[in-house]
Design a protein that fits this description.
The complex is a heterodimer of chains A (215) and B (71).
Chain A: H1 3-19, H2 21-36, H3 43-81, H4 93-160, H5 168-173, H6 178-214
Helix pairs in contact in A: 1-3, 2-3, 4-6
Chain B: H1 2-32, H2 38-69
Classes of the chains: A mainly alpha (215), B mainly alpha (71).
């Protein structure tokens, strides 16, 4: 382990103790205050004791302020020398490590921002594509309906034997789905076929009757 | 007296902290030497101040404890 690595390791250990100083200093201060309440018969000694307690409490208050400074300075030092433990340059290489870490953090932030922008662009493109497909489907469905309606009208005109001059058939067929149109045409076709068959039957019957009567 | 014994124990802890802080400040100072940067100096000063105040508190506490031990 390098010299800086060894110091870093010891500094970390000491900073752990420094972090716990809050309670230790508070406890020490309480102990000092409790001492000041203990009886001392000799007045001179009591005066000295009280002065010592005051000094101890003053030093402990200063220690608490030192604690904050030492933690801040120690952590900054560790951050500066942290990556140099890995053998990356040693000595004054700590600054290079600092700059390298800052650059790496900036690069990471840039990469994350770029990735977020890419995701956003992909999501927008997917949304536009979905809207385009939906519109395309609707247009195709509309085309299908129109085409089916035209076919249906033509078929009905032929079956019924009447031209759809007023557009009544087209109006009747327009709101219908293709399946309904097909069913409607088939129904009308059956009705017409039925009428035609009846008419043919009547003609045949008459023909047969006349034929039988004639034979 | 119990309070006095506890004060002696706390003083011993503070002395221990003083030794550690001063020894580490000396090591950092020796390692960095003349090329100490602002952050290096900060940590050396903070550790020295910590050691000094820990020592002051320890010795004052020890004195107060010894004066209280035999009323």
């Amino acid at each position: 382990m390098s010299e800086v690595g060894r110091i870093s390791s010891r500094l970390r250990g000491l900073l752990g103790e420094v972090r716990r100083l809050d309670r230790q200093a508070q406890h020490a201060s309480n102990v000092a205050r409790a001492l000041a309440t203990q009886p001392v018969r000799d007045e001179r000694k009591r005066g000295e004791r009280d002065a010592a307690v005051a000094r101890a409490r003053g030093a402990l208050a200063a220690l608490t302020a030192d604690q904050r400074r030492a933690l801040a300075a120690g952590n900054a030092w560790l951050a500066m020398h942290g990556s140099s433990q890995g053998g990356g340059g040693g000595g004054r290489g700590g600054r290079g490590a600092d700059r390298s870490r800052a650059r790496s953090q900036r690069n990471n932030a840039d990469r994350r921002a770029a990735a977020a922008r890419r995701r956003e662009r992909r999501a927008e493109a997917a949304l536009r594509e979905a809207q385009r497909r939906e519109a395309s489907r609707e247009m195709a469905a509309e085309d299908n309906r129109e085409s089916a309606a035209k076919l249906a009208v033509t078929a009905l005109e032929q079956i019924l034997g009447i031209p759809d001059s007023g557009g009544a058939l087209a109006d009747a067929v327009a709101p219908l789905a293709r399946r309904q149109v097909r069913a409607y045409v088939a129904m009308k076709g059956r009705e017409t076929a039925s009428r035609v068959r009846a008419a043919i039957g009547r003609l045949r019957g008459g023909g047969r009757r006349s034929g039988r009567g004639g034979g | 007296m119990p309070g006095s014994r506890e004060a002696q124990a706390v003083a011993a802890e503070l002395m221990d902290l003083k030794r550690k802080a001063e020894s580490l400040a000396a090591e950092v100072s020796a390692e960095i030497g003349g090329s100490a940067t602002g952050k290096d100096r900060d940590v050396i000063h903070a550790l020295r101040a910590l050691g000094r105040h820990a020592g002051e508190a320890a010795s004052a506490l020890q004195q107060a404890a010894s004066l209280t031990a035999s009323p």
